[in-house]
Amino acid sequence: MRRVVFLLSASILLLPTLSTAQQAAQQTAPPNALRFIVDPGDVVPGPSAQLITGSITLKASPSGSSPRTGGGCLIYTSVPNHTPCTNDSQCQNPGIGGYCANFDEGQAAKVCWHQPQPAQQSCHRSPTEPLPVGRAVPFDHPTSPYPSGVQRPIRWRVVSCQNLVAGGCQNGTTDQERVYRYSVKIKQFD
Fold this sequence. Notes:
This protein is α+β, with helices and mostly antiparallel strands. It is about 15% helix and about 30% strand. A hairpin with a 7-residue loop joins strand 6 (about 100) and strand 7. Residues about 1-20 have low confidence and may be disordered.
């Protein structure tokens, strides 16, 4: 009996802890419901050598949520002029959405990332229509890897957003309303 209790206690201690966003996502899905994540793709060349684009894919995942709506965008940061941050609110500029995310692949230091303007050029948004499962959805318009006035080199990645409540990606301000995910691969343009 003691062995069983000890083994159960050890396995509980080894379980990974979930972020607030992951806990909120799991709470929105009824038991036994299919769960999904809006997975950010990579930054890829656009239809011409002077443009880049990205995509998102809705994937089944036990750590996901039941809502199948959301979207994604390309975001960038200037390597020499990046702004350190600890949360998204530190990255907001008038008319420009901002995200606080890792500067490097896997590095803990976070910096502000921004959408190029106009933002609708480098995104795909599906606030009410479910995204197709397992199929990459390309962004609506490619964009230049060199935004006006941004000092080079410039790093790019994809951010995805999954609605946990209606309008969560567009109007939500908390992890209980939407979940952001960032592409692991970061592409740098010198």
